[in-house]
Predict the 3D structure of the following.
Amino acid sequence: MLQIKNIFKRKKLPAISQSNTTIFPLPSISDLSEKMQSAKKQTRNAHKVIPANLQEILKIKCPDPTAEDRIRDNHQQLGQRLVRQENWEALSTCITNHDASGTLTPGSMPLAELVAYGARADVVMAAEHAIRDSENHVAKEVLTGIEDLEHVVESMPDDYVIACIVAQAHIDIGWAWRGNGWDAEISQRNREAFEAHFERARDLIAPFLQSHAHSPLLAATDCAQVSGPAATKHHMADKYEHLINLNPHNPRPMRAMGNHLLPRWFGNYAQLELEARRTAARTEHIWGAGGYTWVQFDAISFDDVACANLDLAFFIDGLRDILKRNPNPHTANLLAAYCANTIGQSFSGSDEADHVRAQIADCTQWIVRDHLTELHPMIWAHAAHGFDNNIRIRSPHRFAASGQEDAMRIMAGLFKSEIAAGKQIVFTENGPRAFSA
């Protein structure tokens, strides 16, 4: 196996050839593009699997792509395109501007992170493909793309955006080497690769942490690398607090912090509750009680103790405040799917935890009736899997279809009395309305 650490510590690296337009051989850029386009087409046909009679009873528009998806795709594709053109200066300027303004999509995704994701997408997808599908896990093939990104760092050593992009690529590839198994299940070879990539990510961003302390992109990258093999418990909450304070309109760091404060990661239940309340207090002017809800959002999904310890009234108040302050279809689908699928399907047999889960699941009723105007199947499908970012989706078509089937089934149950009375449920811009069939 190639010595990953030694490769990354070279003093001199050759410049990237301006004529080299295909630098990611496993698989090629064109192959990846075709797969991505095919996946989108499959997803957009997902509605055809829903029985026609149910669609007649429950009439709800299912835009494909959704407004949120279009915005995300456009910015990811921009980053991908600029990298393929090797226009690194324009890429850096674009991300820097978004990072400084803290611009978010309606679904609260930072534009800077979307463009940065697109910039590393080809390299990460190629590496993941090689790690997953190559029989021998040939290290040289895995490292081809990341070494090319390292050349860019050498040519732009003072650019924190480029450092973040390459560091994030190392973090993604490191997790691809490690996988989702328990520590005891990870081979020595994969563990060493995981650690080497995270060490390199840490080295890349370290020179910028003080000079660019107000960058949400840099702070997010720092939090991501801290969650690696060298994580220390006493730094985790502080780093997330810094990131949240930089852009409190973005709930994603709150969710990530809550998850990482579970005992299975880097915290404990008392710390989780404390940080949830502190976050709610700091962000009350933006989210009301929603800061508490965002921090607890993923933590309580599959942890019985965290769920049993939840301040349920505070959490539900937070759900209402989130929808009041961020009234858009993406958020309504996210919270409805979370209550119905993530929480509603995770009963474990723990009486105290399941009692809390049942009351959160009941919130699906008022969220759908008061806030849902259109259906986003992929959100519902991801909710059924606990919003696992590492889930492998073999067929986007079937995955989206499963989400739509879940949503339609759940909504049919919510409106069972109206349906039994022969009513047709039509979702309008003002919410669902019952009409005589």
About this structure: The first strand starts at residue 58 and ends at 59. Residues 1-12+68-231 form one domain.
